[in-house]
């Protein structure tokens, strides 16, 4: 099945999405010289954690393990806070690995979809736990969209 039919995103659009993200976040285009492109790790985490001390600590732990990698943080996509998962799945496809975290003990819907997509593409996937990074070889069980929204309402991040 073609990637576009399966995920609704053109590979060209995903590449452009990553270019925009990297230009905005790091001031450079990661594909300007493909041979010299640094590897990238995508950090999949819940939106309530964006911009918090917890996120900063998680990023520091990830950068220790993935030295030499660019960390692609969806929280840094200011003008692209869109609800279209296809955009983020396209960015995941352009990264070399993915690290995810749980929120309140749960893998949120979007985080689970991103981790699943990375595994489908043969990327290395890790869960960041209190004990460190744990390699994941099977898709994690994650909340449905409705369950994710309900949890976000419960914690006060989103209105009912």
End-to-end Cα distance, whole Å, is 38 Å
Count of helical regions: 6
CATH topology, anyone? Rossmann fold
Number of strands: 5
Count of discrete structural domains: 1
What is the topology, as strand order, of the major beta sheet?
A: 2-1-3-4-5
Q: Give the uncertain stretches in residue-range form.
A: 1-7
Described by the principal axes of the CA atoms, the overall outline is globular
Strand content: 5-15%
Instruction: Report the radius of gyration as a whole number of Å.
Output: 15 Å
Helix and strand content put the structural class at alpha/beta
Averaging pLDDT over every residue, what do you get? 84
CATH architecture: 3-Layer(aba) Sandwich
Q: In this structure, how is the largest beta sheet organized?
A: 5 strands, mixed
Q: Report the CATH C-level class.
A: Alpha Beta
**SSE string, helices as H and strands as E:** HHEHEHEHEEH
**Helical amount among residues, as a percent range?**
40-55%
Describe, in plain words, how this protein is organized in 3D.
Mean pLDDT is 84; it is low at 1-7. The protein has helices at 3-7, 11-26, 53-65, 85-94, 109-120, 145-154, and strands at 40-44, 70-72, 97-100, 124-129, 132-136. Helix 2 packs across helix 4 and helix 4 runs parallel beside helix 5. The protein is built from 6 helices and 5 strands. The longest helix is centred in the first third of the chain and has 16 residues, at 11-26. The protein has one domain: 3-Layer(aba) Sandwich (Rossmann fold). With 160 residues, it is of the alpha/beta class. The protein starts with a helix and ends in a 6-residue tail after the last helix. Helix content is 41%, strand content 14%.
